[in-house]
Amino acid sequence: MWAKHKQQSGFTIVELLIVIVVIAILAAISIVAYNGIQNRTYDSSIQNDLRQTYNKIQLYRVDNSGSNPPATSNTDVNSVFSVNRRSYASGTNSLIYCYSDTNFAIVARSKSGNGYYYSSVSGANKFTTWPGDGNLDLCPAAGIVQASAGYSARWIYVNGAWEPWFTPGA
C-alpha cells in the first residue's frame, strides 16, 4: 500500500512576511497621522494662548488709560499672560511680549516649529518662516519696531526655560 503523507498546516514564510509588511505600513501611517494631529494641537494651543493674552492686554489697556502692561512689572505681566507650557518649542526663544507707547504684540513658536503672533498693528498672523530668535527680529516682524516711542520687549520663554518670575499654566 501506498504510504499516506500527513499534510502539515501552517503559514509559509512568504505569507508571514506579507502580514508583517502590511502591519508595518499601517503602523507608519498611524504614526504620521498622530504626529500631524499632535502638531495641530500644539499650534491651536499657541493660537488660543495668544488670543487670550491679546484680549487680556486689551482689557488692561481699557482699565489703564490706554497704556500697555509694562514689561518691567512681573505682577502685571503674570496677570495678563495665559499660556499652556506644554505647547511651546523648547530650546528656542519661544514667547516674547513687545510693546511701544501705542501698540503691542505677543509672539510665540509652537513645538511644531510654526510661529504665530497677535499684534495691535496687524491682528493675528502666522509667520511663513521664523524671523529670528531676538527681539530685534521678532518684534518688528509683528509690527513693533525698536525705534517706536516707549519700545520695550520682555521674554517670557527663553532658551527652553520659563522666566523665573513667570508661572505658566499646566
Summary, kept brief:
This protein has helices at 13-63, 74-80, 135-141; strands at residues 95-99, 104-109, 115-119, 123-126, 152-158, 161-162.
Keyword list:
170 residues, alpha+beta, six-stranded antiparallel beta sheet, 3 helices, rod-shaped
Q: Name the strands of the widest sheet in spatial order.
A: 4-3-2-1-5-6
The low-confidence runs, each spanning 5 or more residues with pLDDT under 50, are none
- The domain count comes to 1
Largest sheet: 6 strands, antiparallel
The gyration radius over C-alpha positions equals: 26 Å
Percent range of helical residues: 25-40%
Oligomer: single chain
How many distinct helices? 3
Protein described:
It is built from three helices and six strands, in the order ααββββαββ. It has 170 residues and is α+β, with helices and mostly antiparallel strands. The model has no long low-confidence stretch (mean pLDDT 85). A hairpin with a 4-residue loop joins β1 and β2 (104-109). 38% of the residues lie in helices and 17% in strands. The termini are far apart. A six-stranded antiparallel β-sheet has the order 4-3-2-1-5-6, sandwiched between helices. It has one domain.
Secondary structure elements and pairings:
Blueprint: H1 13-63, H2 74-80, E1 95-99, E2 104-109, E3 115-119, E4 123-126, H3 135-141, E5 152-158, E6 161-162
Antiparallel strand pairs: 1-2, 1-5, 2-3, 3-4, 5-6
